[in-house]
Amino acid sequence: MSSAAALAHGSGASSIAPIFQAEGVVKKFGGINAVNEATMQVADGSITALIGPNGAGKTTFFNVITGFYRADGGTATFEGRRVLGRPPYLIARMGMVRTFQITKALARMSVLDNMLLAAPHQPGESLSGVLLRPGASRRREREVASKAEELLEVFNLTKLTDQYAGTLSGGQRKLLELSRALMAEPRFLLLDEPMAGINPTLGRRLLDHMQRLRSEDGVTFLFIEHDMEVVMNHSDRVVVMAQGTVIADGEPHEIRSDQKVIDAYLGGGSPDDGAESSSAATPRSHGEGGRVTERPR
User: Helix, strand or coil for residue 100?
Assistant: First the structure.
């Protein structure tokens, strides 16, 4: 049984070989350790959530392991190959692709062109490919266009195909960025708050598509999320960060009752408790569709 199939059938993620490992990762800004000796691993074929209060270092950790920030210490490997110190484009070519909390669409290009640019292995990108392999170039162009149209349909963006990406709403840009990341054919996809700004119906389609990609293609996911309903119901494992370090790592039911998580992340409430907690707790509210979200502090 494959790792993805094992997870889908309820086997523990901890028993499956990791596709990604980080050991003692450090990132400093002046005298502040934004990421402080962070250590974690992600099982091959899993859907792993990364949670923690605002300022815990989650996005900074993403920036370090994907090459956008230079680490000040530690190691990180993807499929056994070092990633720290490599530029982002090489890490992406390895199959480790990410999205951003603040979307980064190519605003003056159409939605479709944004998608087509992300596809790998295009012979037509080089003059020699066009001249020496014209048939292969045209065939690959058709394959890429077909895949782009399929993904745009999945995320309800088909009607926006010819519009400039810069004219899209925040939620539409978030979906475009996710679709573009999938065009890169990742084996390990890192999502920074994928549900933010997306209506509940499209959010459910996104979650269903993640499950399908994991089951059918073996794609591994690590996603940052503040929606506790999504985290507890759609992840195999949950990693918790606070003050730049990993304070807990376990299955959702374990994290729900972990006292360190309750103290550091929720200040006295249960991770899936929608009620208002004590004055020391992080304020929370019910967002779109009754989702529990965290108010920024």
Answer: coil
